[in-house]
Give the backbone structure.
Amino acid sequence: MPSSMTKIDEKPTDRNSLFLHANNREKGVTTQEHIYAQLRDAIMLGRFRPGMSVTIRGLAELLKTSPTPVREALRRLSSENGLELLPNRRIVVPRMTAERLEELIETRVELERFSAVRALPFINDRLIDELEVIDARIDKAVLAGDRDKQIRDNQLFHRTIYCANPDNIRMPMVESVWLQLGPFLRIALREMGDFYKIDRHKEAIAALRARDPKLLRAAIEADVRDGVGQLGHDAVATILSEG
Amino acid sequence: MPSSMTKIDEKPTDRNSLFLHANNREKGVTTQEHIYAQLRDAIMLGRFRPGMSVTIRGLAELLKTSPTPVREALRRLSSENGLELLPNRRIVVPRMTAERLEELIETRVELERFSAVRALPFINDRLIDELEVIDARIDKAVLAGDRDKQIRDNQLFHRTIYCANPDNIRMPMVESVWLQLGPFLRIALREMGDFYKIDRHKEAIAALRARDPKLLRAAIEADVRDGVGQLGHDAVATILSEG
DNA sequence: TTTCGAAAAATGTGATATCATTTTTATAAA
DNA sequence: TTTATAAAAATGATATCACATTTTTCGAAA
């Protein structure tokens, strides 16, 4: 486990506990954009535990800026349902329920299968080669136990496929689902261990090479379900009770 | 045509042209929330023409507030892809292309069919009665030529179905698609006239009463396609060239 | 008339101050 | 010890100011 996780593990309800690199942002990127990216990344990688609350001032202090850009970044993240603005104006990481989890998974399946098929006409061999490079990186990350890289490159793999369609308007929706699964995903991956059964990515690549929509749909669905869907109801209950 | 549209028609690229009631917001609603709702409503109802640009200060003046809450509202709307924040920091209403329109329609079909079916287990007779009341209101609005009411109540009809599922996480995505269709929808409705072929809502209601998923999917798909999908390619081209 | 360039205006971004509300803390009573 | 209550602190919301960048304006040169 990376040492950067310890603090959160100690006091689950503590806010503003920690995250990555504080302020090494490129030129031309606004503060708001930078904060948004940082927070989004942290949520995606499961740095924030469900139920945890954050404050504008706390984040501003942590990221060495004023409340204004933080507030806008939070507004965006809540628009994408990565954070929840409670009626009492408190900002929390949404809690997971078995029902919500199922909705998220089924929605991932629907959106991503469809997006893959809609991208198919735009797929070329160069892009498939690129996908194989990414997939190789994922395999290496799994072996190395590098969860962050695994999660990030897995998303990159999917994003690369779907965005082959230049007019794809579902990408923000897919990203929103990923964001909502983020706080849960980290815990799930820990519980599940690394028992990756079959490499669905290789199935997807084969389907893309064959330009076969049905195979592609099946591969994407299988991959999504393998990711978080395969958890038995008992395991889900265990994880849910935790956060 | 409501008189409230004239200004925009006169000078299509003018910004901050007009909208509804300026400041009659309920107590407890924050300024940002109010502005967000106003702008969202305006976009949904096609008050903003594709390509039109808005400014923070302009909207702030128009709505009699400071730039701060306006910026946050705009941030939210761009997160929902109802507005576009250009790299040169200008804020514009996205333009429509034939490809994007097709993506939007197909995504509506996928999302809404699925959401309807996922709501089916939660449907009760009281809710179906409610739907019939809403549908009657729509019929009346169509006859009266009240486009605003037609659009609003049509959305309410769909929302009422999908939100019967208390864990539905696709509603924000559906609303985002509606938002993106907004600026186009108004023009499309004007071009198409009122030739509503068959009342798909009544088909949907029948399917709900029968608790029949297949019928429901078919009815929802037909309704969505009737809405904007039925436009021939020529008509689309005409409309697109306009904005 | 068109094109170019500098001044002026407009605009987005971010920091700070103020206010209202909420949360927390501290103190006292049961 | 627990509960209730009031003071204190924290927090979110908004307005305002300053700054950097972009856009527009306007006049001179081609």
About this structure: Chain B has eleven helices and three strands.
